[in-house]
Amino acid sequence: MPKVTIATVADRAGVSRQTVSNVLNTPEVVREETRERVREAITALGYRVSQAARQMRTGRSRLIAVRIEPARDGINGSVLDRFLHGLTDAAAPAGYRVMLYTATDDDGEIATYEDLLTAYDLDAFVLTSTHHGDVRTSWLAERQVPFVTFGRPWGAPDTHSWVDVDNAAGTEAATRHLLGSGHRRIGFLGWPAGSGVGDARRDGWATALSSAGLPSAGLDRAVADGIDPGADAARDLLPSVDALVCASDSLALGALRAARELDHRCAVIGFDDTAVAQAVGLTSVSQPLTEAAARCIDLLAGVLDRSAETRQLLLQPSLVLRQTAP
Amino acid sequence: MPKVTIATVADRAGVSRQTVSNVLNTPEVVREETRERVREAITALGYRVSQAARQMRTGRSRLIAVRIEPARDGINGSVLDRFLHGLTDAAAPAGYRVMLYTATDDDGEIATYEDLLTAYDLDAFVLTSTHHGDVRTSWLAERQVPFVTFGRPWGAPDTHSWVDVDNAAGTEAATRHLLGSGHRRIGFLGWPAGSGVGDARRDGWATALSSAGLPSAGLDRAVADGIDPGADAARDLLPSVDALVCASDSLALGALRAARELDHRCAVIGFDDTAVAQAVGLTSVSQPLTEAAARCIDLLAGVLDRSAETRQLLLQPSLVLRQTAP
């Protein structure tokens, strides 16, 4: 027997699927006559869908949307892929399914929200890559669309629920580890100022040096992310340092290459503990991505129950020791 | 900014409005070259299909489901992540959204199909990791649920539409490249017999050696995937070979490590051109994953239009040359 779906019901009642969905979810917006016709079709076809039933009961679709990032250099991009794996794993037992979308910038993403909210009964969004001047959260908040973010609202008040990893604590631990191994001239390779995550990673390094009574001035470089920019910046810094903390594994790989070329002994620590770090023996700061994803799903429950207070969770990273800074 | 319509897209692509509509709804009836031109215009103009409008017209949800794999060693697992990025990118302009699910084996995946088909109005599934004795495809076929697979039906008849990459051609090209560089004792590191993909990768190596009149007997090892098993197997083989073709970048990394430890000069070629290959300078066979994902979306249109014949597409991999086998 063919499966009875909303489409079958819509066909029989001679209405659109949206109308059937409206009858199930917001019957007050449907004319009474149409409503009756749809309900007759539902009864005649024996349309009984657990999801639809739940949707009628709870007004929820159990569908959440998350952006999938364009594949960048394949090293750092893997971080959000791991978050996505964790999110899908955590969503299923909680009864949620994850829908993907792509967008190249905030405006494009907001346009996609409109499209998704028109076309699908989404329960909520999980936003990643929050940043200064992020217009996505206020857009969603104004329209009362439920969401949580992986990443804090940089420079904006804490008005929504979020999960983040303490980036500064990660580079501070990395720098302390190098200090503990006897290094005293510890440099930092990071990104241009202005990115919340990047600035926090630089701050952690500077804080650790300052606590140890060591200067940090002149010992950092800000470049675009990638192996080549990392190698260039490291070549410039290496004469002055014997250890480097890096804002990413890509930059750290560049630093390792420069140190090898210059035959300059230099401890190197990356950030994100990617597969590449594992493959080349790079010490790296590891974000608890599976944990972060699971906590996002936890917080969603509170967000969907609008009476709950917003909650913010800052998770601690850990340092994975390998040959480049044992 | 003026609103972008089908007419605007048609003007820019130099085709009729009907052709644009065909590309959006029944792309299989449009010549590939025209299809590409229209898609370029769609992307350039930022044309967004109104999902709600189309759903009313076609009775389809435009929601497709794909499994997201558990994150394995983070090296080889990234291949399916890249496929997923490609799928989401290709799905959006065609008006589809991608929904994720997880499963640990075929039976678990089939249980998930039942859940998804009951709970959501899915249009189709895209299956990955096809294998011998795959019970998923027959389950879906019996229930007339539309699907395409990335991966051919190993050992089963071609009764559904699929896209695959010619694995044997990849290792054959890798082996020929090594032969062309003067290597004559070329070994192979692969997986235990029985996996369609693994056997095909071994076959390509053996075929190239046989065509060159060289023996392959005793020059291959079958081990579990991973850096450590690759290093162990390579240690065993290295005395007899001066080059190694590997079924994965993980195995190739292990081979590189063993060669370094034994101080044995050995060219190494991996498979999948992962970020790790890029980072360590490993020559590797590259699968056209973005292309494969786009073709899956193309084939879906034919599958959803049940009158269309099933189609099978075998794509060619390419060899990315780096330091380990220049």
From TrEMBL, chains A, B:
Keywords per UniProt: DNA-binding, Transcription, Transcription regulation
Gene3D superfamilies listed in its UniProt record: 3.40.50.2300, lambda repressor-like DNA-binding domains
CDD domains, A to Z: HTH_LacI
UniProt keyword Zinc-finger present: no
InterPro entries, A to Z: HTH_LacI, LacI/GalR-like_sensor, Lambda_DNA-bd_dom_sf, Peripla_BP_I
Domain annotation HTH lacI-type: ranges: 4-58
Record GO terms (molecular function): DNA-binding transcription factor activity; transcription cis-regulatory region binding
Cited SUPFAM superfamilies: lambda repressor-like DNA-binding domains, Periplasmic binding protein-like I
Name of this protein: LacI family transcriptional regulator
Lineage: Bacteria, Bacillati, Actinomycetota, Actinomycetes, Micromonosporales
